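Posting this for the archive.
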Amino acid sequence: MARGLHRLVYPIYVSAYNRAVLKLAYSIRPDMLIAYKAPHITARTLQKLRMSGVRLYNFYPDTSVFTHGSLLPKALVEYDCVFYTKPFVDEDIRRRLKIRASCFVPHGYDPEVHRRYDLTCNEATRYGADVVVLATHTHHKQLILEELVRSGALAGRSFKIWGNQWHTHGKSAVLEPYVQGVALNGAAYSKAIQASKVNVALTSGVVAGASQGDNTTTRTYEIPACGGFMLHERSDELTKLFKEGIEVACYQGTTELVSKVKHYLDRKSERAVIADAAYRRAVPRYSYDERMQLLLDWHAANGADGK
């Protein structure tokens, strides 16, 4: 019933949404459109915007463009440039689509949201934990966290998992006691990072439509910007951003994750030194203000004249 209703309502929603985009564009006459993922904008809408002189850019944050409906792949070829956050996405797209141009722009953090806060005692208790994971469920993350729990490393420790789909997609008896049932957003998300001792930054693993899994995520930048201690899956991409053992703690595989969790939970001063070094590395260098400047620089070099 729900799927049938979706099939009936979705085209109506898409039509109304695209009419609203065009109406606003014709009203304010922007120089450019910067779409964030935008799976519901149609190729026809983008064609109309181009005819009115608007430069078209898509900032794409995910690992695959082929798992978010049929509209997105058709629309991507209409953008003047696709700015992707995963280095391998460009090759994945170009195997199947003929896009106009592309450019790698890493994820970042929002300085108005991802920052240090003065936490109340209630906030520290509500959001904080010895170990915290803030992430949407994937099978890869579930397997790693189940092994972490089974290892006994969290015995007598508080552990919280905040994020979407852990109840609907995960349904893990091992993780059920730790799943909070909701995703944290805005200031609450940042406060949970700040209030917790060890922030485990998991990558997604390989998802449908992608040639490989991601090596960094939004958390890679947000955790340091909030002043949190980060224990991140090791990757070449990560260690170009932060110095391992100095600005970030890393692990590869469950055995090392268990060992590192045990190690850092008992070393408050060591966590504080690493978290502070990561903060100084990330702020303001990895902010979205800096990332958007990269996009604007590309526009100035390639599109500002409308050619």
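Residues 30-106+288-302 form one domain. The mean pLDDT is 93.
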